[in-house]
Amino acid sequence: MSSIVYSAYGRRLIQQAAGRHPRHIAIMLDGNRRWAREAGFTDVADGHRAGAQKISDFLLWCNEAEVEVVTMWLLSTDNLNRPAEEVGPLLQIIADVTEELAKPENPWQLRIVGALDLLPDDIAKRLITAAEQTEGRKGMEVNVAVGYGGRQEIADAVKKLLLQHADEGTSIRELAKILDVDHISEHLYTSGQPDPDLIIRTSGEQRLSGFLLWQSAHSEFWFTEAYWPAFRRVDFLRAMRDYAWRHRRFGN
User: What is the pTM of this model?
Assistant: First the structure.
């Protein structure tokens, strides 16, 4: 597609999506390793590096579209079980890109979501420090999901809830009488934020794999064959257009 046609198509997609955009977009940045292999790289870390370079572009697209919250899944709890020679470089790449995203010129605030106690101490510290540097910034909130698993998040939320009520002297029986979904939502990693309106997954896979299990109850899903490093602005605009065309029923 020529640059002129590509630009015209992009403008048309923007027009088609006008008037309705998601407040919260969550994205599964999938396909880095397959992209690297198909591109002829022998080290899959090259795919992760290429994917990391795409993140800032994606966030700028979201910011232009007036999205309020973005959640990016960079590393799952299952990924931590992969060989150390693969996980080690990936963790370094994630820490590097998070520090880049935290630089003062970027108009967003970072929140690290996940079981940071499962990460190496030095990586966890770098991630936390980067997020702290963005505190107080106005504009879009960006959740960086590292060492994240949906079941782990719910388990952690229940633990926090139980500990809170134990400190307050509430018995298990008393807690059982008053417990509702809002109590658990208040203790999720994404507490205080709207649930995702749109969840995007790249690479052709069409499953959640445990991503935002609680929060995705009424989310819309959009899947693309493109590997994450090859994800383009036109792909993003197609997702936005398709979301705008859908009639959300919220379980009804």
Answer: 0.91
